[in-house]
Amino acid sequence: MGTNRSTMLEPLRQGLPPFDPAAVSSSASCSLPARYEAVRGARQFTKATLGQWELADRFDDVALVVSELVTNALRHALPDEAPREVQDPPVRLHLMRWTSRLVCAVRDPSHEGPGPCAGDDASFPDPCGAAESGRGLFLVDSFSDSWGWHPLAGALHGKVVWALFRLG
Q1: 161: helix, coil or strand?
Q2: pLDDT one-digit tens code per residue, 123-155
Q3: Which residues contact 36 (CB under 8 A, 6 or more apart)?
Q4: Widest pairwise Cα distance in the chain
Q5: Are 52 and 119 in contact (CB under 8 A)?
């Protein structure tokens, strides 16, 4: 997974403090089907992974953020006409741990960035996130220490949306 991890982490360097991808002490990832049931699978994967890393006490905040990032990827990043069953699932969750931080990253096929104030776009009925359906990025911002996104380059298409949590 070394090459994949380096490719995945490359766009994160712009928005995070400097780090060496080889210094990631632990990482795990899973593919998610293009169905809303994938959110439950992402939460279960996060719970199991954080338990293995002895970070179970961070599950509530991290799982909330993971749920929102995956939901946004499924709701906004997948084309409506795309088949919902594909051989290479279009959404992927990555969890990466360093000594003092944890990063949750969700990769999806869209090149358009997320934004809580996306204007008058009909898919964002409440563009600034006050309504139930538009609160996702507000929650990500509230429960993580920082978040951002970057388009992917090279063989990977789409973008990655990440959230960083500082650890004790």
Answers
A1: strand
A2: 433 444 434 455 788 899 999 999 999 888 777
A3: 71, 74
A4: 44
A5: no
